[in-house]
Amino acid sequence: MRTLIEFLTDYNKKEGYGTESEDLDEALAEMSAVWTGGEDEHRWHTVVDKVVKVNIDGEDRFFQTFYYETTGDGNASDYDLERPTAEGASEVYPHEFKTIIYKNEPQGYEI
């Protein structure tokens, strides 16, 4: 089973992109999130967890990384914040849970 790093390296080679660690980091950062949350707020930025779905060898796998939302006064590099890396991404697994919402009408009844 290939690792995320091996997958990103093969993907970047196929697409004609670089395969240095910074190139792999960028490829991961550009993937669309299937989930975001777990925000950690600071004065000038917020760290947001991000999970991406990657199909590796026909199997859907999920990896957690993060990104920064800034106040607009600067960006992550202006604040010398740690860059998210492909090497630092961790494999996570989906867990379903039930959410109950409350409405002002009984369920199954028409008002």
What report would you give on this structure?
Helix content is 19%, strand content 32%. Helix 1 (4-15) crosses helix 2 (21-29). Strand 2 (45-56) and strand 3 (59-70) form a beta hairpin. The N and C termini lie far apart (55 Å). It is built from two helices and four strands. It has a four-stranded antiparallel β-sheet, with no helix packed on it. It has 111 residues and is of the alpha+beta class. It has helices at 4-15, 21-29, and strands at 33-41, 45-56, 59-70, 90-92. The chain has a domain at 31-92.
Task: Give a quick rundown of the structure.
The chain is of the alpha+beta class and 111 residues long. It is 19% helix and 32% strand. It is flat and about 60 Å long.
Question: pLDDT below 50 for ≥5 consecutive residues: which ranges?
Answer: none
Question: How much is the radius of gyration in Å?
Answer: 19 Å
SSE class: alpha+beta
| Average predicted confidence as pLDDT | 87
Order of helices and strands: HHEEEE
**Ends distance:** 55 Å
Beta-strand percentage range: 25-35%
Helix content: 10-25%
Spatial ordering of strands, largest sheet: 1-2-3-4
Largest sheet: 4 strands, antiparallel
Number of strands: 4
What spatial form do the alpha-carbon principal axes imply? flat
How many helices? The count is 2
Give the topology.
Elements: H1 4-15, H2 21-29, E1 33-41, E2 45-56, E3 59-70, E4 90-92
Antiparallel strand pairs: 1-2, 2-3, 3-4
Helix pairs in contact: 1-2
